[in-house]
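Notes, p. 3: input format for complexes.
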Amino acid sequence: MTDLLTRRTKLLGPRVPTFYDQPVHIVKGEGVWLWDADGKKYLDCYNNVAHVGHCHPHVVAAIAQQAGTLNTHTRYLHETILAYIERLGATFADPLSSAILTCTGSEANDIALRMAEAVTGKRGIIVTDHTYHGNTTAVAQLSTTNPSAFADDSWVRFVPAPDSYRLLGGQAGAAHAQAFADAVAAAIADLEQNGPGFAGMLLCPTFVNEGLPQLDTGWLDPTLAQIRAAGGVVIADEVQPGFGRVGSHFWGHQRIGITPDIVTMGKPMGNGHPIAAVMTSADILGAFRAAFRYFNTFGGNPVSCAAAMAVLDVLEAEDLQKNAEKTGAYAVEQFQSLAAQHQMIGDVRGCGMIFGAELVIDKKAKTPAKTYADRVVNAMRQKGFLLSKFGKHYNTLKIRPPLPFQSDHVDLLVAALDDTLTELGPALE
Ligand code: PMP
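Output follows (429 residues plus 4'-deoxy-4'-aminopyridoxal-5'-phosphate):
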């Protein structure tokens, strides 16, 4: 372990992130389970990349079969890329039916920004003040969670992220939604008057990095009205909520009741194989192609498409969206029972197979217990449960497992968390 860490720093450079005080050296995965080099077994409560389960045999076979037949770039004709986009397109409302396939979510968001520019002739983008959308030079400027030392965000405006626990504007429901829409309207005006004009807003429709606020269907309607009135486009980053994870719907934007102009997706799409996409209307794609010449050597190659197609097969065959809904609801119930016993759990939030518990020092004052959350995550890792933290204050436990996660896995997780909170005692910092 020490040797791997030393070599890692030497070869990959300093500040390459690893999870946990004592990093984990995973060597094998199956379903919702992972094993480290010492044979210790971990319940994966975190990874959305292995969307249909680690090393799912159907996906592995599809990749192997296609890799043994043909893999090229996308300047040749190939059926699978077309069949895949048709099948993916069927999960969206009209007019979202045309796509560009890429290798990463970052590239997908980068293209989406250029699409917004192509359609509006303007460059200004609005995002929330606690988000991550990727790592290209352009997209990194939007990502407050991984800030750059050399940011040029003159074309970006940040609005306060929605928060259902510490309400924006202090009020719930329609007033909370309106407070967000008002902030977006002010940012639009500022981009128009003092910036490069307003091109659009890029948002995660379930605001996962922001801490998964509980927002009703229609919550984004006043915001969308502002964006559309100003002639901007709406880009939904579905890298985290997409592909059935939110349970009630296939996409996060469907759950909150909007139809974006552009949708980006990535991580879960190939179950670990690097494939991502931008889905939009034929008109927007046409405007993009007219404005930019774009080619992506690996994006949409036959092996990636075979992997992505196999993921859709498994989602359907194993009814995993339904499982996300059922298991996610059960998890929230169990977490709420835990919250009744442990005063440091200030709030429980869930949306299908993403759920979280916000840890606080004082339930009344809602003081974030950030250091305590770190201790909980590390103690859980020692017990064999992999999870993380999210939200503005990084004090909310982030649980976002592969979709085959079942209620008995929830029971194991909740029992371990119960023990951990009892062992650690009250949150003091
Ligand atoms: N958007 C969101 C919401 C993400 O979580 C991520 C990855 N963490 C990205 C975009 C970037 O995706 P990638 O790492 O595949 O470039």
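The longest helix spans residues 173-194.
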